[in-house]
Amino acid sequence: MKYSIYPGCSSEGTAISYHHSTLEVAKVLGLELREIEDWNCCGSTVSSSVIGQFAADVLSARNLALAEKMGTEDVVATCSSCYTNLGCVNKKFANEKFKNAANDALSKDDLSYDGKLKVRNILDVMVTDIGLEQIASKVTKPLTGLKVAGYVGCQTVRALREFDNWEQPTFLDNIVSALGAEPVNFPYKLKCCTGIMNATAPDITASAVYPILKSAQEAGADIIVTPCPLCQMNLDAYQVKVNKNFSTKYNLPVLFFTQLMAIAYGLDRKQAALDYCIVSPNNALKQWV
């Protein structure tokens, strides 16, 4: 199976562990992920309010145009925000007025895009294309006894509503089960973590993260896994602030689901990119790593 992968800005910073573990897991599963050459920011976070919505859309469109030059493979994003931005802009190309205006802007870079590619989230690809049976067949270290809170976040399945159930999502929990672990009953799996608001209102972020961590711990989770870089960063990095603000003692490791897959596939801690975690997963995963 071949795909064009859009890494996104977070893959070079806060979510480097997501990108790295995804590439390692892809090798095990026989996925060919070809990185889009010369990709740029998808226009996520605050760019539309700074440079305008159309300019931000063209940023995403440029990535799609570059992917189209590489072939007709689906474009896969690991980041939920990147997936949402690329997917939304891709849909806008069905509007001839937008398509013409965007292609006029893209022509300044000797590019054009016809809107025919499909934008996918890596979680969707794993379950829909690879399949749970194939995912389970590659497990060499079953995660038996590990209790996992699958934190989908508010954007991954809800923004475009193209895969999974956006009110009762199961894809993430099903992968956890395929790896031999136990997905816990986690009512806050779709709760918003405030995303990039952490940069301007960290106390609000801490207030949003607190009930998510509380829900996971009360469910008996040993770790939390997520498919979203902002979710991972907020739940991982803000536990110290949550503990300070709410007099708690949370110490829940927060991993990307591809890191959990890497562990179950017997890959080493470097391949699973475990050393990028702020809250150490060493104790929770000592049986397997």
Low-pLDDT windows of residues: none
Mean pLDDT over the residues:
95
Q: Helical element count? A: 12
Inertia-based shape: globular
Q: Helix amount, in percent?
A: 40-55%
How many strands, which pairing sense, and closed or not: the largest β-sheet?
4 strands, parallel
Terminal-residue CA separation: 29 Å
CATH class of the largest domain: Alpha Beta
Task: Characterize the structure shown.
Helix 3 crosses helix 4, helix 6 packs across helix 8 and helix 9 crosses helix 11. The strands form two sheets. The protein has a four-stranded parallel beta sheet with strand order 2-1-3-4, sandwiched between helices. The protein has a four-stranded parallel beta sheet with strand order 6-5-7-8, sandwiched between helices. It has two domains: 121 residues, Glutathione S-transferase Yfyf (Class Pi), Chain A, domain 2 (Up-down Bundle), CATH 1.20.1050; 145 residues, Rossmann fold (3-Layer(aba) Sandwich), CATH 3.40.50. Helices cover 44% and strands 10% of the residues. The mean pLDDT is 95. It is an alpha/beta fold.
